[in-house]
Amino acid sequence: MKGFKAFIMQGNVIDLAVAVVIGGAFAAIVDAFVTGVVEPLIAAAGGFDNIAEVTAGPILIGLVIAAVIRFILVAAIVYFVLVLPIQKMREASDRRKGIVPAEDPESQEQILADIRELLKAQQGGKL
User: Fold this and answer.
1) Would you give per-residue pLDDT tens digits along the chain (127 residues)?
2) Where along the chain do its domains lie?
3) Closest of 3, 19, 28, 38 to residue 82, by C-alpha
4) What's the rounded Cα separation, in Å, for the pair 95 and 101?
């Protein structure tokens, strides 16, 4: 039970649970927006009464387009409403705690190369 509690209390698990719940709620809003606004606009632009009429033979292209639009909108909303603000709050919290963000690998490699050169100079070039 102790291991399960530790697993549940990890930040990633909590973040995932919140994202799923909020994503589901936003999905309903996005679904209504796509059904009520985007689909009629696409259908009107194509000269159709309904986006479901947009077909390529037996394949309902309009439904696929609507699903892709829904996915992109849900992903964007979850990112900009949940992920980005939480990320900024964590960065601010880390700064208050004095935690320095990790540098990118290229600058780390440059630091290591500089250290190697300094050690070579101290050893008289025998490193």
Assistant:
1) 777 766 666 667 667 777 787 777 777 887 788 778 877 887 777 777 776 666 666 666 777 777 788 788 878 877 888 778 888 888 888 888 877 666 666 677 878 888 888 888 888 766 5
2) 2-102
3) 19
4) 8
**Which residues are bridge partners to 59 per DSSP?**
56
Q: What is the widest separation between alpha-carbon atoms in the chain? A: 82
DSSP letters for 25-55: HHHHHHHHHIIIIIHHHHHHHHT-SSGGG--
CATH class of this structure's domain 2-102: mainly alpha
Which candidate, 124, 125, 23, places its Cα nearest to that of 80?
A: 23
d(CA 127, CA 110): 17
